[in-house]
Design goal:
By secondary structure, the protein is an alpha/beta fold. The chain has helices spanning 27-40, 42-47, 59-71, 77-86, 88-94, 105-112, 120-129, 132-135, 238-246, 267-275, 295-298, 301-309, 313-322, 334-350, 356-362, 372-389, 397-422, 426-449, and strands spanning 142-151, 159-161, 190-192, 199-201, 210-220, 226-233, 257-260, 279-282. The longest helix is centred in the C-terminal third of the chain and has 26 residues, at 397-422. The two termini are 18 Å apart.
C-alpha cells in the first residue's frame, strides 16, 4: 500500500555518515588506500605544523578533500565546500561528522598552500604507489615520458611588453579589447602581467599560441599508472630536461627503458640515457636528418612494444584535463599549479579504469577486528532507537516528547548492556550499570508524568540476560495516539 506523505521528525540523530555509504561503493577501497598512504606520511605532515597559534585544517582532511575535487570534477574550492555541507558521502570520505561546521572557502584555500612546504604532494603520490594494491601493478623498469601544455590562468591581453612600452587597451572599460595585429610577441620581450609564470607556447605549427605551463608525466608501461610528475615552464626543451630528472629511480634497474615521442629524439638526450644505462625507446625522427635511434634499439621486439604502450599516457593527460579539470589551471603561480597537477595525477593513479576491478577482486579480506560483535550490537541498538524516535506528531507536545525520549533512553540502556557483555574496564562497567539504572528511572518518571503505566522491569544491570541480543528487552509501551514501533 502507498505510504503517507507526512514529514517525520525527531529530536536527535545518531546516524554516522559511513552508514549511508553503500558497502560496494568504489570510494571505500579508495579511502583505505588513501588512509594508509597518509598514515605513512604522519611524521612529514606533523613537521609542517607550528606548535603555537590557532589549529589549522588537518592536512589529511585537506588532501582527501582535494582528491574528491578531482574525482567528481568540482570546479572550485567554493563549490567543494558547498558539497561538503550537504553531501554525506563527501563528509565521510574527508572525515567530517554530520554536525561539524564545514570550513569557509577562504580558510580552505589558505590552508591549501600548506603542502607546498616540503613537496608533500609528490611524497603522497609515492606513498600511494607504495601501497600493495598499486605496487603489484607496476613493472618498475619500463616507463614512458611525455609532456602536455596546460593553459595558464591569464588572458592573452595580459601578455604585455616587459619594458612597459605597450599602450593601454583601446576603448576603455573593465574588459577593453586590444589589437595585437602586426605586433611581434615573444617570451623574451613580453610577459603576462596577470600570471608571470605562464609562457607563450604553440603546441604545433598552425595552432594558436597560448599562455601555458608544461605538465610532465612518467608512466609505467604495464598498467598505465603515473609514477612521477613535474611542472616546468613551457619551453621547447623542458620535456627532455624533466624526463632526465624523473628517471632517477630507473638508473639502477637493469634493462630499464624509456619510451617517448619524436620530441625527445635528440642526439644529446639519447646519449645521456645510454650513459645512465637506460635504453632509449624513443620514436625515430627522420624529417630531413639522420635519426639518433639506430638498429641497436629498433631491432628488438621490445622497442615496438614500448612504442605501442607509450600512447596510453594520453589517457592520463585526458583524464587530468577533463575529469580533473586542469585543461585550464585554476591557480596562479607555478608552485600552486604543480601541487594541483600532482594531486590530480595521484587521483588518476588510485582509480584508473584498467584496474578498477582488480582492487575489489584481488584485495585480500582482512580479519574482522575483535570489537566487531560489540559494534554490530551497538549499531542494532542505534537503528532501533532511531526507528522508535521517528514518530508521527499527535498535537500533544507532552506525549510526543515522551514518545521520543523513551526510545532514546532505551537505546542508552541497550548500549550499556552491550558494553557489560564485551567490555573489560571495571570502572566503565560500573558506569554502564549506573546508566542502566538511571535511564530506567527516567523512563518510568516520564511515563508517570503523562499518566502512562510503568514498563516491565529489566534484568539487573550486572546480569544481562543469557543469549539476549541488543534491544531484546521489553520496549516501552506505545503512547496513546502512537502505533507500536
Amino acid at each position: 500500500m502507498q505510504g503517507e506523505d507526512e514529514r517525520t521528525w525527531g529530536m536527535f540523530s545518531y546516524v554516522r555518515p559511513e552508514r549511508r555509504v553503500p558497502k560496494d561503493h568504489p570510494l571505500r577501497p579508495i579511502r583505505e588506500i588513501v588512509d594508509r598512504a597518509l598514515g605513512s606520511l604522519s611524521a612529514q605532515l606533523e613537521a609542517l605544523y607550528s606548535h603555537t597559534g590557532r589549529p589549522s585544517i588537518a592536512l589529511e582532511k585537506l588532501l582527501r578533500a582535494l582528491l574528491l575535487q578531482a574525482f567528481y570534477s568540482v570546479r572550485s574550492e567554493r563549490q567543494l565546500m558547498e558539497r561538503l555541507e550537504y553531501n554525506l558521502l563527501f563528509c565521510w570520505f574527508v572525515g567530517l561528522s554530520m554536525d561539524v561546521v564545514v570550513w569557509d572557502a577562504t580558510t580552505f584555500t589558505k590552508n591549501r598552500d600548506q603542502p607546498l612546504d616540503g613537496d608533500i604532494a609528490r611524497e603522497f603520490l609515492a606513498a600511494v604507489l607504495n601501497q600493495p594494491e598499486v605496487r603489484r601493478l607496476l613493472s618498475q623498469e619500463h616507463v614512458s615520458g611525455e609532456g602536455t601544455p596546460n593553459e595558464a590562468w591569464a588572458a592573452m591581453k595580459s601578455f604585455r611588453p616587459k619594458d612597459g612600452s605597450g599602450g593601454p587597451p583601446r576603448g576603455g572599460g573593465r574588459n577593453a579589447a586590444h589589437d595585437f595585429h602586426g605586433e611581434k610577441r615573444t617570451n623574451a620581450t613580453h610577459a603576462s602581467t596577470a600570471n608571470p609564470d605562464g609562457r607563450l607556447y604553440r603546441k604545433s605549427p598552425g595552432q594558436s599560441a597560448t599562455l601555458c605551463h608544461m605538465g610532465q608525466l612518467l608512466m609505467d608501461n604495464r598498467h598505465g599508472l603515473i609514477v612521477e610528475t613535474e611542472l616546468t615552464p613551457a619551453t621547447g626543451w623542458g620535456e627532455r630536461a624533466a624526463a632526465e630528472a624523473m628517471i632517477e629511480d630507473l638508473l639502477h634497474v637493469p634493462h630499464a627503458t624509456l619510451a617517448a615521442d619524436r620530441a625527445y629524439e635528440t642526439a644529446a638526450f639519447v646519449a645521456s640515457l645510454r650513459a645512465e644505462g637506460v635504453v632509449p625507446h624513443v620514436a625515430q625522427n627522420r624529417s630531413g636528418r639522420r635519426s639518433a635511434i639506430d638498429g641497436r634499439t629498433t631491432r628488438h621486439p621490445s622497442y615496438a612494444v614500448s612504442q605501442r604502450a607509450r600512447k596510453r599516457i594520453e589517457e592520463a593527460f585526458g583524464w587530468i584535463k577533463t575529469i580533473g579539470g586542469l585543461r585550464k589551471t585554476r591557480h596562479r603561480g607555478r608552485d600552486k599549479v604543480r601541487l594541483s597537477f600532482t594531486l590530480i595525477a595521484t587521483a588518476f593513479v588510485i582509480v584508473p579504469p584498467v584496474y578498477a576491478g582488480a582492487l575489489a577482486q584481488e584485495t585480500p579480506m582482512h580479519e574482522p577486528p575483535p570489537e566487531t560483535p560489540f559494534l554490530r550490537e551497538n549499531d542494532g541498538a542505534m537503528e532501533k532507537m532511531m526507528a522508535g524516535m521517528t514518530i508521527k506528531p499527535t498535537g500533544n507536545i507532552d506525549l510526543d516528547f515522551v514518545a521520543m525520549m523513551a526510545p532514546h533512553h532505551q537505546g542508552a540502556i541497550d548500549m550499556a548492556q552491550a558494553y557489560l557483555r564485551y567490555g573489560h574496564n571495571e570502572q566503565l562497567k560500573r558506569l554502564a550499570q549506573e546508566i542502566i539504572v538511571t535511564q530506567q528511572q527516567e523512563i518510568a518518571a516520564m511515563r508517570l508524568a503523562v499518566g502512562l503505566p510503568l514498563p516491565p522491569s529489566l534484568p539487573a544491570p550486572d546480569q544481562p540476560a543469557a543469549g539476549s541480543a541488543i534491544g531484546s528487552g521489553t520496549p516501552p509501551r506505545a503512547m496513546p495516539g502512537h502505533p507500536e514501533n
